[in-house]
Amino acid sequence: MNRRQALATLAVVMVRPAFAAEGDLAGAIRTWTGGAATKEGRVKLDIAELVDNGNAVPITVTVDSPMTAANHVTAIALFNEKNPQRDIARFQLGPRAGKAQVSTRIRLATTQRLVAVAKMNDGSFWTHNVDVIVTLAACIED
Amino acid sequence: MARALITVPPNAKRGEVIEVRVLIQHPMETGYRPGSDGRILPRDLIRKFSCRYDDGKSNEIVFSAELYAAIAANPLISFHTVATGSGTLTFLWEGDNGFMQSEMAAIKVS
Which helix (H) or strand (E) holds A19? Predict the structure, then answer.
């Protein structure tokens, strides 16, 4: 092995654990839902499809729910595909929220898929996937 | 004390859904990023946020969140709650390195 190959191997060994150890997107969602089936719909993940700056990307999740004591959203979780860690945030809501809409600002390391999952009080899970293109990634500057 | 910006409508009608926006000054250091010396900067995140609404009759948490490294620096969270009565909203942020900050906002409901 020459010096160049040795360095390349070292780089692979050093980079991979941080980005691969946290598991895949589907696995992270399954862990949160406890293995329950998820259906597409009722959730709307609002984010710019083309992101100029991945350091602070506004994102809004809205769930179609009357938010009454009998029928409401209990939790919303946001996941990403290619950041170092799959979780973005988890929110706990209830009938006191009145409206199932939450906004925040997130970091995106690269072009990837985002998933919002909402848990209803009847135990059902609803999802929405969005693919975003990121031109300037987060986490590269000091 | 980190600076916090809280936006709660000062007046609301009973039963109205109000938007609450909270922003707190915090680096949200991910623990994945190298510093200027090439070494990974230690993780320093806000991990939890909660909002407690004391309307005179009940005093319960109406919204809470768990935050991870993918949340941008100076985390902003916007959520909604029903104006059930006049009282106070208490916001609590908790995080790494013993970070804890609490802020309050008053609301008048007619």
Answer: helix A3-20
Assigned domain for A8 exists: no
How near does any CA of chain B get to the CA of A70, in Å?
A: 16
- Residue whose token pair is 């804890």: B100
Nearest CA in chain A to B37: A142
The reply to whether A5 falls in a domain is: no
Per-residue pLDDT of chain A (142 residues; tens, 9 = 90+): 566 666 565 554 444 444 444 468 999 999 999 988 899 989 999 999 999 888 999 999 999 999 999 999 999 999 999 888 999 999 999 999 999 999 999 999 999 999 999 999 999 999 999 999 998 877 655 4
Domain CATH code at residue A98? 2.60.40.2470
Instruction: Give the integer Cα–Cα distance in Å for B6 and B20.
Output: 8
Range of the domain at A78: 24-136
ipTM over 0.85: yes
